[in-house]
Amino acid sequence: MPLDLLCVRGISKRFVGVQALADVDLTLARGEVLAVIGENGAGKSTLMKILAGLQSPDRGTLEVDGAPATLANPRAAAAAGIALIHQELCLATNLDVDANVFLGREPNRGGRIDRATIRARSTEILQRIGATFAADAPTASLSVGQQQQVEIAKALAVDARVLIMDEPTSSLSARETADLFRIVRELRASGVSVVYISHRLSEVIELADRVSVLRDGRNAGELAREEITHDAMVRLMVGRDVSLSERVSARRAGAAVLKVEGLRTSAWPAESVDLEVYPGEIVGVAGLVGSGRTELLRAIFGVEAAVAGTVAVEGAQLPGDVVRSVAAGLGLVPEDRKGLGLFTEWTVPWNVSLANLAEVATRGRIDRGAEAELAARFGDQLTVKAGAGQVAGMLSGGNQQKVVLAKWLATGPKVLLLDEPTRGIDVGARQEIYQLLEKLARAGLAILFVSSEMEEVLALPDRVLVMHEGRLAGQLDRSELSEQAVMTLATGGSGAAA
Amino acid sequence: MKKILGITGLLVLILAVTAAFEPSFLLPANLENLTRRTGLYGVLAIGAAFVIITSGIDLSIGSMVGLTGCVLPLLVMGQGWPAWIAVLAVLSISAALGLSHGLLITKVGLQPFVVTLCGLLFYRGAARWITDDQPQGFGQAHLGLRSLATGKPIDLALVACFVAVLIWVAALVRFVRAHPDRKPRLVPWACAVVVALPIFLVGLGGVLGEREVGDRLRVDGREAVITQVVFRVADKGIGDILLAGGPERTLRVRVAAEGQSLPEDDEAALTASGQLLTAPYAVRGSLGTWMGLHLAAIDIPAPFLFLMLLMAVASYFLGQTIWGRHLLALGQNVDAARYSGVRTDRLVILAYVGCGLTGGIGGILFVLDLNSVEAAKHGNFFELYAIAAAVLGGCSLRGGEGSIVGVVIGTAVVHALYNSINLLGIPTQLEFAIIGAVILAGVTADELVKRAVARRRARRVREEHGACT
Asked: Would you call B340 an interface residue with chain A, using a CB distance cutoff of 8 Å?
C-alpha cells in the first residue's frame, strides 16, 4: 500500500458533557473515494470539522503525506490541500461564477483584481470538471447542482488534494447527482481523494472504494469495496440487524377512502391525475424531482389551489381548503420540515396540539392540562425524545419528524399524506417511522407518501404510483416492484403494468 | 411570566430612582397623571402588539387617533349627534379602516409597512380637511361624556377591597368546581384567603374614612366644609414619606360663623360664607384605617381602569384561547400555520381590525381628556410610542411572541421616564434621546439574556442527548 495521503490516529474530541469522538482512526489513500457513514450524532461532522481545521482535537495525531501536521485553522487545512464542501452551499449569489471560484484569494496586481487571470483559470477548472456553464455566468442563475460544481471548482482552484463532501446530494435531482458522480470519478482518476459523507447508502454502494463507519464517536468498522452492501453498512451503523418486516399486503376492503379525479396542478396544468387510496393501504408515489409529486400532495390537501379536478374523502368532496381538509380527516407531513411542518421555537405540546386545539378547548379556551395529556399520549406513542419545555427546533431530525407526525395523528386522520417522510433522518429513526406507518396502516389509516428514497419506495408501500412530468406514468403492485421498473416509468419509459 | 420580569424590574427602578430624587413624584396628582397617560397610550400599544405579533406593523395609529379625535367632536358638537351614537360611529369608522388594512395586506398582498404608511398620510390629510385645520373640542359641554377620560371613579382603597373579594371568589370557585382528578392545592389557597382579610379591612377603612371635598366636619366646635385636600411632601426624604405612609395632608375648610350653620347645597352662598381655615387631616382609628386612608388618597383615572379591562381581555384572548394560539402560530411561521389548518388570512385581518379599533378607542379617550385637539398635530408619533412600548414589553418585530401584560408595563416605562425627566429637571430637549437610549438598552439586555438562556439550554441538551453532528 502506498503512503497514505492522510492519516488520523486516535483522535478524541470532547464537548461539554459529551464525548463526540473517542480514539478515532481514519486513513485516506491517494485517489480514493472514502465514504464515512454513521447515524446522526455518530461524530462524522466533528471529524470532518477537525480535518478542515474548524475544530482542533483534544488528543490524537494527524499526518499529511506521512509528516505530522496540526490543522489549527481553515487556512492551515487549505495549505495542506484539504477542502470541505458544506451541505449548505455558501456562494455569493450576487457575483459571477469566476468571482466565486477565487473569492477571498483573488489574483491581483497591487490590489487591483486581475480579472483576466481569474477568468482564464476558472474556465480551465470548469472544463476539467465538465461543467456546462461559463465562467462569467451569474451564480444566481445556476441550479443547486451547478452551484455545487462551483464549490468544487473553488476547492480545485487552491489545488485541494482532499475534498470532503458533506451530504452533497441532499438537494440534487437525479441528473445532477449523476453529474456529481461523474465529477467525483474523474477527480479520483486524477489523484484527488474524496471523503464522502452521506445518508444515502445506495450512493455509497455506487461510489465508494471503501467505507468507514462511525458509531457513537468511535470506529465501528470498515468495509472494503467488495464488502459494501446495504445490510452490512446498516448493521455497522446501528449495531444490530434492522430490516423492514415483510408486510402482508393489505387487501382492498370496502370503498376507497381518498378519491382524486381529474386533478390538475399549477405545476403541470395540462396533465390530470386520478388516484384512489383504500383504508389500511400504503401507497407510494415515486418519480424524479420536479415530476409534480409535491404539488399533487399539496393540491389534494388543499394548501395549493388545484387548476381543476376533485378530491373526495369517504365520498364527500373537499372544497380545496386546508381547514376543511383537516376536518374531513386529511393530514400532510410536508417535505420542508422546519419551514412548513414545525414551529421550531415552540415546545412539543404546542406543536402537537396545534391542528387539534378544538379537542382540548372548551368554548375556545385551551385547557393546558388536556393539551399536555394529548401531547404526552401521542408523544409516547411515537417515542418522541424531548425534555420538558424543550423547544422543537432543538430536537434531532427524527424526533422533529415524529412531532409533526404526532400533530396529525392527534387529529385522528383517515388519510395521511407524507412528502419525503424520512429526509435528513438517521437510520434508526427511519426504521421507527416505517414501523409506525405500518402499524397505522394495519389500524386502518390510508397512507399516501412521496419519496425519492428508492429503498423506502421498494420496501414500504403496497403499491407504487410513478409520476413522470405531471402525470401518473404507471402503477406497480408489490409483486411487480423493482428499482428498474420504477426508474423506467419515472424516466418516461413504457410501464410494465399501467 | 419570566418574560415580563426584566421590564417590570426596569419600571420599578425608574419609579424608585425618581421618587428618591424627587419626592413630589409621590404626590397623588402626579401619580394620577402618570397612570392616566399610561392608560391612554397603553390602549394603543395593545392594538399595536396584536399586529406586531402577526409580524406586521401599523404605522397609522397616530393618524387614526388624530382622525377619530377630530371626528367625534365634529359629530357631537357640529352635527348634534347624541354622544353614544357618535362614539359608536367613530368606533365603526376605525374598525372599518383597520379592516381595509387587513384586506389590502392579506388579499391584495401588499406589505403592512406600505399599507399603514399610506394610512398614516391619508388619515392625517383627511382629518385636516374635514376640520379645515380648526381646533376641535367640546368646550364646557358634555362633561358626562368627557368623564369617560377625565373621571377618577375609584381609589386604591376600593381596589384593595375588590382584590380581596376577587381572591375569595377565586378560592370558592376552585373548591366548588374543582376537577375531580386534580385536587386544588389546599395550603396556598387557604393562605390566600387568610391574607385577603386584612387587605379587605384596610381597604374598607380607607373607603369609609376618607375625607373629600364637600364633606362636613366640625372645627373648633363649629360646622365646617372641606374645600380642598392639600398634599405636601415638604422637604422630607423618600424614607420619611414612606414611613409616614404617604405625603403629608392638610385640609382647607370653610368654617361657619360661631353659632351658625353653613348653607346647604348652595355653591355661591357656601363660597361667600364663613372663614377659610387650614385644619389637620385627622387620622384616627387603627393602623389599618390609617393605611387605608393613604390608599384612598390615590385615585385611579378612568383611562387606566379601561386599560386594565382591555389588558385582561386581550391577555385572555392571546394566552388562553385557540385563536390566540393560532395568532402566535402564524406570527412565528405563517406557512407552517397554513399547513396546520390555521385560517391565517382571517386572523391577520382580525389583528388589523383590532388595532384600528384600539386606535379609535384611544382617539376618543384622548380627545375627551384633552378637550381641544388640532388635526395637524394631534396624535403625531403616537404609533411610535405604541410600537416602542410593545417592543419593550417583549414583542418581537419578527412576530410570534409577545405578552400583553408586558406591553402595558412597557407603556408605563415610557411614561414613567417622561415623568421622571420632567420632575428631575433634566433638560426636556433630551426627552427623546433618553427614551430612545432606555428602549435600546432594554431590548439589548433582553436579547443578551435570551441568547445566554438559549446557549445554556443547548448545552444541557447536548449533555442529555449526545453531540449534534
From this structure: yes
Type of residue numbered A495: G
Cα(B306)–Cα(B314) distance, integer angstroms: 12
Residues recorded for chain A? 498
CA dist., res. A56 & res. A50, Å (int): 5
Question: How much is the ipTM here?
Answer: 0.83
Interface-testing mutation among A13, A18, A58, with chain B (most B C-beta atoms within 10 A): A18
Residues A87, A85: Cα–Cα separation, whole Å: 7
pLDDT tens-digit readout, B194-212: 999 989 988 888 888 888 8
H/E element holding A6?
Answer: strand A6-15
Q: What is the pLDDT of residue B321?
A: 95
User: How big is chain A by its Cα radius of gyration, in Å?
Assistant: 25
Residue A247 has pLDDT above 60, yes or no: no
| DSSP notation for A443-494 | TT-EEEEE---HHHHHHS-SEEEEEETTEEEEEEEGGG--HHHHHHHHTTPP
What distance lies between CA B114 and its chain's CA centroid? 29
pLDDT tens, B280-324? 887 666 677 777 888 888 899 999 999 999 999 999 999 999 999
Cα–Cα nearest to B270, from B219, B210, B224, B221: B224
Of the listed ranges A144-148, A440-444, B303-307, B309-313, the least confidently predicted one is A144-148
For an interface test with B, give the residue of A167, A344, A346, A367 to mutate (most B CBs within 10 A).
A346
Q: CA separation (Å) from A171 to A168, A395, A418?
A: 8, 22, 18
A443, three cell numbers: 389500524
Question: CA dist A414 to A276, A370, B185, B192, Å?
Answer: 13, 23, 41, 49
Q: Specify the 3-state DSSP secondary structure of B276.
A: strand
Least CB–CB distance from B341: residue in A42, A46, A323: A323
Of A15, A325, A350, the CB nearest to B467: A15
- C-beta of residue A170 within 8 angstroms of C-beta of residue A123: no
For residue A216, which residues of chain B lie inside 8 Å, CB to CB? 466
Q: Which three cell numbers mark B53? A: 405579533
**Which residues in chain B land under pLDDT 50?**
465-469
β-strand partners of B299: B155
Helix, strand or coil, per DSSP, at residue B81: coil
User: Which residues in chain A are contacts of B343 at CB distance < 8 A?
Assistant: 323
Q: What percent of chain A has pLDDT over 90?
A: 31
| Alpha carbon of residue B414 to chain centroid | 12
